[in-house]
Amino acid sequence: MSGLITRRGLLAGLGYGVIAGTTSALAYSPSFRDFALRGGEALSYRTHRLIGRNALAPEFSEAEMSPVFRTNGNTMPSSADYQRHMNGGFADWGLVVDGLVTTPRTFSLNELRSMPSRTQITRHDCVEGWSAIGKWKGVSMKTLLDAVTLMPAARYIVLHCADSFGRNPYYESIDLLDAFHPQTILAYDMNNAPLSVGHGAPIRLRVERQLGYKQAKYVMRMEAVETLSTQFGGNGGYWEDRGYHWYAGI
Ligand SMILES: Nc1nc2c(c(=O)[nH]1)N[C@H]1C(S)=C(S)[C@@H](COP(=O)(O)O)O[C@H]1N2
Ligand SMILES: [Mo]
Protein backbone atom coordinates (compact mmCIF):
# COMPACT_ATOMS: atom_id res chain seq x y z
CA MET A 1 0.00 0.00 0.00
CA SER A 2 2.68 2.48 0.93
CA GLY A 3 4.52 1.40 -2.22
CA LEU A 4 1.51 2.36 -4.30
CA ILE A 5 1.17 5.74 -2.63
CA THR A 6 4.84 6.43 -3.21
CA ARG A 7 4.63 5.56 -6.87
CA ARG A 8 1.52 7.68 -7.30
CA GLY A 9 3.16 10.58 -5.52
CA LEU A 10 6.16 10.25 -7.78
CA LEU A 11 3.96 10.23 -10.87
CA ALA A 12 2.13 13.32 -9.68
CA GLY A 13 5.38 15.11 -8.97
CA LEU A 14 7.14 14.18 -12.18
CA GLY A 15 4.48 14.38 -14.79
CA TYR A 16 0.99 15.23 -13.80
CA GLY A 17 1.36 18.67 -12.34
CA VAL A 18 3.74 19.91 -15.00
CA ILE A 19 1.80 18.78 -18.02
CA ALA A 20 -1.70 19.34 -16.66
CA GLY A 21 -0.68 22.87 -15.74
CA THR A 22 0.65 23.65 -19.18
CA THR A 23 -2.32 22.18 -21.00
CA SER A 24 -4.93 24.03 -19.00
CA ALA A 25 -3.35 27.47 -18.78
CA LEU A 26 -1.31 27.97 -21.90
CA ALA A 27 -2.48 25.52 -24.49
CA TYR A 28 -4.62 28.00 -26.39
CA SER A 29 -1.76 28.94 -28.69
CA PRO A 30 -1.27 26.17 -31.25
CA SER A 31 2.49 26.55 -31.28
CA PHE A 32 2.78 26.41 -27.51
CA ARG A 33 0.39 23.48 -27.48
CA ASP A 34 2.65 21.65 -29.90
CA PHE A 35 5.68 22.42 -27.80
CA ALA A 36 3.96 21.33 -24.60
CA LEU A 37 2.75 18.09 -26.07
CA ARG A 38 6.09 17.23 -27.56
CA GLY A 39 7.98 18.06 -24.39
CA GLY A 40 5.42 16.24 -22.31
CA GLU A 41 5.32 13.11 -24.37
CA ALA A 42 8.85 11.97 -23.71
CA LEU A 43 8.69 12.81 -20.02
CA SER A 44 5.38 11.13 -19.30
CA TYR A 45 5.98 8.08 -21.48
CA ARG A 46 9.27 7.44 -19.68
CA THR A 47 7.73 8.15 -16.30
CA HIS A 48 4.76 5.86 -16.86
CA ARG A 49 6.88 3.07 -18.24
CA LEU A 50 9.49 3.36 -15.46
CA ILE A 51 6.92 3.38 -12.72
CA GLY A 52 5.17 0.43 -14.25
CA ARG A 53 2.06 -0.73 -15.95
CA ASN A 54 -0.19 -0.42 -12.92
CA ALA A 55 0.38 3.16 -11.77
CA LEU A 56 -3.10 4.62 -11.60
CA ALA A 57 -4.41 7.97 -12.75
CA PRO A 58 -6.01 9.89 -9.87
CA GLU A 59 -9.59 8.97 -9.04
CA PHE A 60 -12.07 11.35 -7.43
CA SER A 61 -15.13 11.29 -5.20
CA GLU A 62 -18.77 11.73 -6.24
CA ALA A 63 -18.67 15.21 -4.67
CA GLU A 64 -15.87 16.25 -7.01
CA MET A 65 -17.76 15.40 -10.21
CA SER A 66 -18.17 18.36 -12.57
CA PRO A 67 -21.71 19.71 -12.78
CA VAL A 68 -21.21 20.16 -16.51
CA PHE A 69 -19.10 17.91 -18.73
CA ARG A 70 -18.99 19.50 -22.15
CA THR A 71 -18.74 17.62 -25.41
CA ASN A 72 -15.96 18.17 -27.92
CA GLY A 73 -14.99 17.10 -31.42
CA ASN A 74 -17.65 15.18 -33.28
CA THR A 75 -20.93 14.87 -31.43
CA MET A 76 -23.09 13.16 -34.07
CA PRO A 77 -21.58 10.69 -36.53
CA SER A 78 -23.22 11.22 -39.89
CA SER A 79 -22.75 7.80 -41.49
CA ALA A 80 -25.93 5.99 -42.53
CA ASP A 81 -24.76 2.90 -40.66
CA TYR A 82 -24.31 4.78 -37.39
CA GLN A 83 -27.62 6.62 -37.80
CA ARG A 84 -29.41 3.31 -38.31
CA HIS A 85 -27.87 1.84 -35.14
CA MET A 86 -28.63 4.99 -33.18
CA ASN A 87 -32.26 5.01 -34.27
CA GLY A 88 -32.54 1.35 -33.27
CA GLY A 89 -31.12 1.97 -29.80
CA PHE A 90 -27.96 0.03 -30.77
CA ALA A 91 -29.99 -3.18 -30.38
CA ASP A 92 -28.27 -5.02 -33.25
CA TRP A 93 -24.99 -3.12 -33.00
CA GLY A 94 -21.83 -5.07 -32.18
CA LEU A 95 -18.24 -4.28 -31.24
CA VAL A 96 -15.88 -6.15 -33.56
CA VAL A 97 -12.61 -7.34 -32.00
CA ASP A 98 -10.28 -8.70 -34.64
CA GLY A 99 -6.84 -8.38 -36.22
CA LEU A 100 -4.02 -10.37 -34.62
CA VAL A 101 -6.27 -12.47 -32.37
CA THR A 102 -6.93 -16.20 -32.44
CA THR A 103 -10.73 -15.99 -32.07
CA PRO A 104 -12.17 -12.78 -33.56
CA ARG A 105 -15.52 -11.92 -32.01
CA THR A 106 -18.35 -9.45 -32.11
CA PHE A 107 -19.81 -8.36 -28.76
CA SER A 108 -23.35 -7.00 -28.54
CA LEU A 109 -24.07 -4.14 -26.18
CA ASN A 110 -25.98 -6.53 -23.92
CA GLU A 111 -23.00 -8.87 -23.83
CA LEU A 112 -20.69 -6.00 -22.91
CA ARG A 113 -23.10 -4.87 -20.19
CA SER A 114 -23.31 -8.38 -18.72
CA MET A 115 -19.52 -8.77 -18.40
CA PRO A 116 -17.66 -7.74 -15.20
CA SER A 117 -17.50 -3.94 -15.05
CA ARG A 118 -15.31 -1.22 -13.62
CA THR A 119 -16.48 2.21 -12.46
CA GLN A 120 -14.07 5.14 -12.10
CA ILE A 121 -14.35 8.88 -11.48
CA THR A 122 -11.53 10.58 -13.34
CA ARG A 123 -10.46 13.89 -14.81
CA HIS A 124 -10.56 14.42 -18.55
CA ASP A 125 -7.99 16.94 -19.80
CA CYS A 126 -8.39 18.35 -23.32
CA VAL A 127 -5.44 20.05 -25.03
CA GLU A 128 -7.77 22.91 -25.93
CA GLY A 129 -7.60 24.00 -22.30
CA TRP A 130 -10.53 22.54 -20.39
CA SER A 131 -10.96 19.70 -17.91
CA ALA A 132 -13.92 17.89 -16.39
CA ILE A 133 -14.36 15.17 -13.81
CA GLY A 134 -16.79 12.44 -14.77
CA LYS A 135 -17.85 8.95 -13.77
CA TRP A 136 -17.36 6.12 -16.22
CA LYS A 137 -18.61 2.53 -16.12
CA GLY A 138 -17.61 -0.08 -18.64
CA VAL A 139 -15.86 -3.32 -19.42
CA SER A 140 -12.09 -3.62 -19.09
CA MET A 141 -10.26 -3.81 -22.38
CA LYS A 142 -8.31 -6.67 -20.77
CA THR A 143 -11.51 -8.69 -20.38
CA LEU A 144 -12.23 -8.34 -24.11
CA LEU A 145 -8.67 -9.09 -25.18
CA ASP A 146 -8.54 -12.16 -22.95
CA ALA A 147 -11.74 -13.38 -24.62
CA VAL A 148 -10.20 -13.26 -28.12
CA THR A 149 -6.57 -14.14 -27.21
CA LEU A 150 -3.91 -11.90 -28.71
CA MET A 151 -1.38 -13.46 -31.05
CA PRO A 152 2.27 -13.00 -30.01
CA ALA A 153 2.90 -10.50 -32.83
CA ALA A 154 0.23 -8.05 -31.55
CA ARG A 155 1.72 -4.81 -30.20
CA TYR A 156 -1.03 -2.19 -30.43
CA ILE A 157 -4.80 -1.95 -30.27
CA VAL A 158 -6.34 0.30 -32.92
CA LEU A 159 -9.77 1.77 -32.13
CA HIS A 160 -11.88 2.44 -35.21
CA CYS A 161 -14.63 5.01 -34.70
CA ALA A 162 -17.92 5.63 -36.51
CA ASP A 163 -17.28 9.33 -37.18
CA SER A 164 -14.96 11.23 -39.47
CA PHE A 165 -13.77 14.74 -40.25
CA GLY A 166 -14.50 15.15 -43.93
CA ARG A 167 -13.27 11.94 -45.52
CA ASN A 168 -10.90 11.08 -42.69
CA PRO A 169 -12.17 8.60 -40.11
CA TYR A 170 -11.43 9.22 -36.43
CA TYR A 171 -9.27 6.48 -35.01
CA GLU A 172 -6.89 6.01 -32.11
CA SER A 173 -4.39 3.46 -30.83
CA ILE A 174 -2.73 2.41 -27.59
CA ASP A 175 0.06 0.02 -26.73
CA LEU A 176 -0.46 -3.19 -24.79
CA LEU A 177 0.63 -1.68 -21.45
CA ASP A 178 -2.26 0.75 -21.67
CA ALA A 179 -4.57 -1.87 -23.21
CA PHE A 180 -4.14 -4.11 -20.14
CA HIS A 181 -4.03 -1.24 -17.61
CA PRO A 182 -6.72 -1.60 -14.92
CA GLN A 183 -8.28 1.80 -15.72
CA THR A 184 -8.54 1.18 -19.47
CA ILE A 185 -12.20 0.49 -20.17
CA LEU A 186 -14.76 0.64 -22.94
CA ALA A 187 -17.35 2.79 -21.20
CA TYR A 188 -21.09 2.41 -21.87
CA ASP A 189 -22.32 4.56 -18.93
CA MET A 190 -21.35 8.09 -17.98
CA ASN A 191 -22.46 9.78 -14.76
CA ASN A 192 -24.89 6.92 -13.97
CA ALA A 193 -26.70 7.01 -17.32
CA PRO A 194 -26.18 5.31 -20.68
CA LEU A 195 -23.53 7.16 -22.68
CA SER A 196 -25.18 9.90 -24.76
CA VAL A 197 -24.52 10.25 -28.47
CA GLY A 198 -22.61 13.47 -27.82
CA HIS A 199 -20.21 11.66 -25.50
CA GLY A 200 -19.68 8.64 -27.76
CA ALA A 201 -22.58 6.15 -27.68
CA PRO A 202 -22.72 3.24 -27.58
CA ILE A 203 -19.17 2.88 -26.20
CA ARG A 204 -16.05 5.00 -25.90
CA LEU A 205 -12.53 4.40 -24.72
CA ARG A 206 -11.28 5.64 -21.35
CA VAL A 207 -7.50 5.43 -21.11
CA GLU A 208 -7.04 7.53 -18.04
CA ARG A 209 -3.34 8.37 -18.08
CA GLN A 210 -3.66 10.18 -21.40
CA LEU A 211 -5.22 13.37 -22.78
CA GLY A 212 -8.71 13.91 -24.18
CA TYR A 213 -8.06 13.17 -27.83
CA LYS A 214 -7.04 9.59 -26.96
CA GLN A 215 -10.50 8.96 -25.44
CA ALA A 216 -12.02 7.61 -28.65
CA LYS A 217 -15.80 7.92 -28.91
CA TYR A 218 -18.11 5.80 -31.13
CA VAL A 219 -15.78 2.78 -31.02
CA MET A 220 -17.00 0.24 -33.59
CA ARG A 221 -14.01 -2.01 -33.88
CA MET A 222 -10.84 -2.91 -31.94
CA GLU A 223 -8.08 -4.25 -34.12
CA ALA A 224 -4.89 -5.84 -32.77
CA VAL A 225 -1.94 -4.93 -34.99
CA GLU A 226 1.82 -5.30 -35.11
CA THR A 227 2.58 -1.83 -36.47
CA LEU A 228 0.79 1.50 -36.73
CA SER A 229 2.63 2.55 -39.88
CA THR A 230 0.13 0.88 -42.22
CA GLN A 231 -2.97 2.48 -40.64
CA PHE A 232 -4.33 5.66 -42.26
CA GLY A 233 -1.60 8.35 -41.97
CA GLY A 234 0.70 5.99 -40.09
CA ASN A 235 0.97 7.91 -36.80
CA GLY A 236 -1.57 5.99 -34.76
CA GLY A 237 -4.51 8.38 -34.64
CA TYR A 238 -6.55 11.04 -36.41
CA TRP A 239 -4.92 13.88 -34.45
CA GLU A 240 -1.53 12.17 -34.42
CA ASP A 241 -1.64 12.19 -38.23
CA ARG A 242 -2.01 15.99 -37.90
CA GLY A 243 0.97 16.49 -35.59
CA TYR A 244 -0.23 15.60 -32.10
CA HIS A 245 1.91 13.15 -30.22
CA TRP A 246 0.91 9.51 -30.08
CA TYR A 247 1.65 9.16 -26.36
CA ALA A 248 -0.47 11.89 -24.78
CA GLY A 249 0.52 11.23 -21.17
CA ILE A 250 -0.65 13.41 -18.30
N1 LIG B 1 -14.58 9.43 -32.31
C1 LIG B 1 -14.15 10.58 -31.75
N2 LIG B 1 -13.54 10.50 -30.55
C2 LIG B 1 -13.09 11.63 -29.96
C3 LIG B 1 -13.19 12.89 -30.58
C4 LIG B 1 -13.84 12.94 -31.84
O1 LIG B 1 -14.00 14.01 -32.48
N3 LIG B 1 -14.29 11.75 -32.39
N4 LIG B 1 -12.67 14.02 -29.95
C5 LIG B 1 -11.68 13.80 -28.90
C6 LIG B 1 -11.40 14.96 -28.06
S1 LIG B 1 -10.29 16.13 -28.64
C7 LIG B 1 -11.88 15.08 -26.79
S2 LIG B 1 -11.42 16.33 -25.75
C8 LIG B 1 -12.87 14.10 -26.29
C9 LIG B 1 -14.16 14.81 -25.94
O2 LIG B 1 -15.03 13.91 -25.31
P1 LIG B 1 -16.45 14.42 -24.88
O3 LIG B 1 -17.19 14.87 -26.12
O4 LIG B 1 -17.11 13.26 -24.20
O5 LIG B 1 -16.23 15.60 -23.94
O6 LIG B 1 -13.17 13.08 -27.21
C10 LIG B 1 -12.09 12.65 -27.99
N5 LIG B 1 -12.50 11.51 -28.73
MO1 LIG C 1 -9.65 17.28 -26.80
UniProtKB/TrEMBL annotation:
Domain Oxidoreductase molybdopterin-binding: 91-230
Pfam family, one: Oxidored_molyb
Name used for this protein in its record: Molybdopterin-binding protein
